[in-house]
């Protein structure tokens, strides 16, 4: 089995060891906590904006897409969901704080950079097969992960989902973020060890 397929299929579960390490090593400190919450809000805002345009197709275990989404945040960055995830997880590390906050931040960033680079390469191979030159042009103009300043004006004129539809699609991610923050707070408030 191709490692990229494994990472794609299990992308919701591969961060679990990191989350457990973050929880175990957490020790709240308010400057880190406030900055971390800010990063989580920014990352989740990017995700919500992306899901408004891509819809529930992003929740699949099948590689590919029913159509090529190049509008909204996808006109600035080809992978806004992954960018949002990276920012969220960096925020979670800062929320957790602790004496290993900076090494953990580096490990989390490196982990997601490696994982997403492998997943994206697999997705891009599939998108080239599905959409051919349309995707090649998009890939040449719009950066992979770090957004361009001005949006690319492609042919995709889709209407975004309503905020209610978007939140229904995004509820699992929101629940996970809340649970992790509650666990960090409970561990530090009640002093229990994991």
Briefly, what is this?
The protein has 194 residues and is an all-alpha fold. Helices cover 66% and strands 0% of the residues.
User: What is the radius of gyration computed over CA atoms, rounded to a whole number of angstroms?
Assistant: 18 Å
- Roughly what fraction of the amino acids lie in strands? under 5%
CATH topology: Four Helix Bundle (Hemerythrin (Met), subunit A)
Q: What is the approximate shape?
A: globular
How can the largest sheet be summarized? none
Average pLDDT confidence is: 91
Gap between N and C termini, in Å?
34 Å
Helix content: 55-70%
Helix/strand/pairing category: mainly alpha
CATH top level label: Mainly Alpha
CATH architect. name? Up-down Bundle
The H/E string reads HHHHHH
Number of domains: 1
Number of strands: 0
Query: Number of helical segments?
Result: 6
Low-confidence sequence ranges: none
Q: Can you characterise this structure?
A:
The protein has 194 residues and is mainly α. The protein has a single domain (3-10, 23-190), classed as Four Helix Bundle (Hemerythrin (Met), subunit A), CATH 1.20.120. Helices cover 66% and strands 0% of the residues. The two termini are 34 Å apart. The relative contact order is 0.19.
Topology summary:
Blueprint: H1 3-9, H2 16-25, H3 30-54, H4 80-96, H5 101-141, H6 163-190
Fill in the keyword field for this structure:
mainly alpha, 6 helices, Four Helix Bundle (Hemerythrin (Met), subunit A)
């Amino acid at each position: 089995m191709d490692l990229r397929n494994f990472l794609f299929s299990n992308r919701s579960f591969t961060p679990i060891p990191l989350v457990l390490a973050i929880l175990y090593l957490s020790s709240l400190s308010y400057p880190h906590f406030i900055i971390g919450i800010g990063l989580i809000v920014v990352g989740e805002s990017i995700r919500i904006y992306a899901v408004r345009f891509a819809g529930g197709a992003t929740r699949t275990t099948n590689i590919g897409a029913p159509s090529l989404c190049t509008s909204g945040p996808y006109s600035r960055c080809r992978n806004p969901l992954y960018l949002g995830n990276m920012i969220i997880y960096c925020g979670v590390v800062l929320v957790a704080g602790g004496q290993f906050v900076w090494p953990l931040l580096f490990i989390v960033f490196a982990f997601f950079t490696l994982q997403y680079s492998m997943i994206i390469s697999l997705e891009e191979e599939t998108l080239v097969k599905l959409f051919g030159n349309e995707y090649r042009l998009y890939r040449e103009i719009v950066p992979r992960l770090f957004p361009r300043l001005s949006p690319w004006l492609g042919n995709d004129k889709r209407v975004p989902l309503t905020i209610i539809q978007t939140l229904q699609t995004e509820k699992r991610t929101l629940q996970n973020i809340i649970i992790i923050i509650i666990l960090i707070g409970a561990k530090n408030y009640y002093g229990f060890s994991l």
